[in-house]
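Record 1 of the preview.
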Amino acid sequence: MTDDFSIIPAKAGIQGGGALVAALDPRFHGGDGVTKEQTEPLFAQQAPPATRVRGYWQSVFYRLRHDPVTLVFAAIVLLIVLAALFAPLIAPFDPYKESIVGRLKPFGWRGHLLGTDELGRDVLSRLLYGGRVSLSMGVAPVLCATLIGGMLGVIAGFVGGRTNTAIMRTMDVFYAFPSVLLAVAIAGAMGGGMANGMLALTLVFIPPMCRVAETATTQVRALDFIEAARASGAKTMTIIRYHVLGNVLGPVFIYASSLVSVSILLASGLSFLGLGVRPPVPDWGLMLSTLRQSIYVVPLVCASPGFAIFITSICCNLVSDGLRAAMDVRM
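->
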């Protein structure tokens, strides 16, 4: 008996799904009597093209591009950052220049769009320059805490045992105090100042960042591909670098983005209490502290630093929520 597949023309072998159709169609069982008009419709029946599957980060960017709310608030945050960076070019007046005659003037007085403060300095210029300090104190502690806390969390979660107990019980000591009180206590003990304030905020953010990294690493450590890497003879640092970090960075990055707004608020609070930036350096929290005594004279001018803090914090929070939604594969 002749095998049906032996009489399939050679051309059918390169047509993907058309070969199977040709093999099963009775018109091909006649040998050399098959005409070109009979074969062309069968060879045209191709398998559908393979669908391109997006990678994880491609899916994240795709979701972000189709999230208008996140894009709008991210644009606002970008504008705030650019305004702070280019403050020397944008500021209409010298933020340190005082004027006894121009004290506590309302919006629009002699070109001062947001009025003047208690020493006659332009509020808009000080807000632009103060954004540099406030944003720096909001981002720098989070970056430092992410590096230190993330590293400790990965080590504790992957090694386990006594190492995990020693690191995590130390972090639990910091959890015994509210973050605001802990930041105030550390900054007060070190004497205040911008550098000490940033150090205090870094110490406050390390424990929660370590907890997030440790939890994510513990979940990844139990997966099969980690055991396969160990069985293949890979060293611990190699496994952490190539297999663990890629799966831990997502949750850590999401949590770090949510801490930026908290850091801005805490930094402004320290400056408001006199434990952060020292006068006459412009800072949103310090401006709010010095203007609070004139709230009944020019209320809108006095509320300007608080409005800047509110807008920046709420925009950072909404951008963080958008990043969480985009990076969460379960949503």
